[in-house]
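user: can you give me the structure for this one chain? tokens are fine.
assistant: on it. calling the predictor now.
[tool input]
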Amino acid sequence: MHVRRVLPLVTLALVPLLMVAGCVQPAQPAAGPPPSTAPPVPQGGIDPATAFTPVAATTLTTPAPVTGTDGKVHLAYELLLSNASSAGFRLDRVDVLDAAGQQVLLSLAGPQLAAASNLIGGTVGDEGTSDPTGSATVVPGSTTAVVWLDVTVTGTPPAALTHRVAGAILDPAGVARVTLESAVGQVRTGTATAPLLGPPVLGGPWYASDGCCVDDTHHRRGIAPVNGQLLVPQRYAIDWYLLDEQHRTVVGDRTTLAGYLTYDVPAVASADGVVVDATDGLPETTTIPEPPPLPPISQTVGNHVTLMIAPGVYLLYAHFKTGSVAVKTGQVVKRGDVLGRIGSSGNSTTPHLHFQVMTEPTFFPTDSTPFAFDCFTLDGQVTERIWDDILGLQPTDVLPYVPADGTVRKGQMPLDRNVVTFC
């Protein structure tokens, strides 16, 4: 029990007045005790609003703001919903709210919610992550679902987000027994500005495949259990493919690396930094255009370069051509320096540059955070979802494409399937 000490009042005696040069000067009062710095005593008891909730929530990252080519500020993150009961839970709606004002920023229900959720687990897919499996319309007892969120706002994002889940507890026959709506899980948003980068490749047009933020891609939705943590290590990663004027990534023989326009193209430093990892000597894929066998975890990104551009901010360039890495670990580089040439090493089917920002100097384990480029033009959009591991198996070499406005974009992040040319 904390007892607060009360200090007694001190009565000051009057002191004689001194007459000095015809002036009267009173004595200065003694300094009183400093104000109390003890923290307030919290109130006990259970809040009347407290209730048991069959669903518990957590998040996998700090939502970090970045402006996309749609002009909106994106906060991409994952909401894990664990059904702590033995009964099934029908997930009807998930709302994301500004924690301060309680305004609804995103509401998912029906087909939208089904498309944006799945149960944890599934087959091992690209780069060692688990591919999404089905939807989480019903979360069985003692299982966990993930809801893939892309909250967009205009202007400054909220300081924190909270979530509201509506659904029903089901009986063994799948009939709703109890309907409920619960507030679950609050997360603070990041305050750091996404790093502003120069181009990782020169010119264009470049196809930004498997990017953020809402599409079902192996980057955005690849959960990796690494060293006891659930991570989404490629959340904002982009696979870059060079296109020609006919919007093709390959011209000629699809079974040879040299048939792909991206092959042997240089990749450059997007910022000044120091090389913390430069790996070369790993072979390139020999199964093209079919996916290669899953390599050991240490060879996932193949020949690669990792730059540290600020404390806790690392740039990864992956899948370089064997023998092409042009820098050494510990080397200081400047923006625009050639780091290597694009190939198809590691877990890569066709030549492309895998590029992302990481919080750690290694691909596993790391968190994936957003970034923006200082200047590019938005040329167009690939209109259909094409995963990079089957580009060589498409019925035509020409990607489905619609032109964009061609305006210069500054301080934005290319969104999934944008086609851009760097300034």
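assistant: here you go. The chain has two domains: 55-188, 196-422. The two ends are 66 Å apart (CA to CA).
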